Amino acid sequence: MNTENLQIQIKTFFGLEQVLAEEVKKLGGKKVEARNRAVTCEGDLGFLYKLNYSCRTALKIIIPILEFKAFNESKYYDKLFKFEWDQFLEKHQSFAIDATVNSERFSHSQFMTLKMKDAIVDYFQEKHNIRPNVNKDNPDIKFHLHIDRELVTISLDSSGDPLFKRGYRKEQTVAPINEVLASGMLQLAGWDGKGNFLDPMCGSGTLLIEAAMIALDLPAQIFRKEFAFQNWKNYDEDLFQKIKEFRINRVKEFTGKIVGYDMDARALNAARTNIEAAEMEDIIEVRKQNFFESEKDMFPLLMVFNPPYDERISINDDDFYKKIGDTFKQHYPNTLAWLISADLDASKKIGLRPSRKIKLFNGKLETRFLHYEMYDGTKKVHKIKE
Question: Where is the secretion signal located (predicted)?
């Protein structure tokens, strides 16, 4: 593998491609291109380490190592069997395969995964007289198999566990928001750590912690214990340590406030546990507070939140969203507010026209990320930008 000019693919959620592309450019990526749920770029081994350690909106970072066309299962197996797998996999290491198959010719992803596993094991059996183990739960090396019609692409996973697993979430409420989605929402909302931040329905605190990490410029994976690239044959421990030290030395002071409200005692306990795990007790304040009875007490203020649409709080949608709009209008003048909702009619119930609507997915739920601009003493109407 040419470690000076790696072709890097970074996976993300739908709607966050441009946010991720900007992150990659700021980190120093070359030839950065936004794709569908992904960004591609070029960089060296050190840059790959930096991406894994720092990127807030990356889910998984992979390196393509083999690409070919196959028109039948025999050709597919032969190509895989002839590949020099010991460039990437040591004889004693375990491996696993993730597969995505979009092909009429090869329709069964489990079967294609099994054939790839057989090819790898047979290669080692013939060349080294040893059979490497498959370990689906905790492999040393993970490969990604992608088949699009006849085109087969094999990639090496540099991340291991998905990068939304930051390491600070010890407790969670029902249907908590994904860390990558939370960070993407904050960046779409323009949060840069200047001013003050409020999540008025904070749940287990994910938006609060991600907001604090952005404000302090903490690397996204500062709490993570391991990455898949640490099991690679060419892993450079000294280089990775230097990259971590350089990033940590860039941590900034934060003079604003980051505050979360919630009415649910269990949610507040979960938030406090997670905030403590993230070592953010001095940065983030959470309190039991009904948003609908609150008044703006921070200036300037950015508000981002994920109103409950799960069993944690039983709500009457019409009344609930009307109360959100009334609270915006009556108690939060001169405030920028963003909320995400799977209720696609939510904006009508709020009684304010959103200045932006961004399509995002929270898990499999299609949502809209809605932006409201409240001005003191004005009924300004904004056109909707899709």
Answer: none
Non-local CB neighbours of 171 within 8 Å, separated by 6+ positions: 204, 269, 270, 273, 274
Question: In the structure, what pLDDT confidence band is assigned to residue 1 with cuts at 50, 70 and 90?
Answer: confident
- pLDDT (tens digit per residue) in 156-194: 999 999 999 999 999 988 778 999 999 999 999 999 999
| 203 in the same domain as 347 | yes
- Kindly state whether residues 192 and 314 are assigned to the same domain: yes
Asked if residue 236 is part of any domain, the answer here is no
The number of distinct structural domains making up the chain is 2
* Antiparallel, parallel or unpaired: β 258-262 and 335-341: unpaired
Whether the Cβ atoms of residue 194 and residue 258 lie closer than 8 Å to each other: no
For residue 22, pLDDT beyond 50: yes
Helix, strand, coil share of the chain (percent; to 5): 35, 25, 40
Measure the CA–CA gap between 61 and 69, rounded to whole angstroms. 23
Residues 70 and 189 in one domain: no
Per the structure, the complete domain to which residue 342 belongs is given by 179-218+253-374
- 210 plus 94 within the same structural domain: no
Q: How many CB atoms lie within 10 A of CB 293?
A: 10
Which of 378, 382, 371, 289 shows the shortest CA–CA distance to 329?
378
Dihedral of CA atoms 34, 39, 43, 49 in degrees, nearest 10, equals: 150
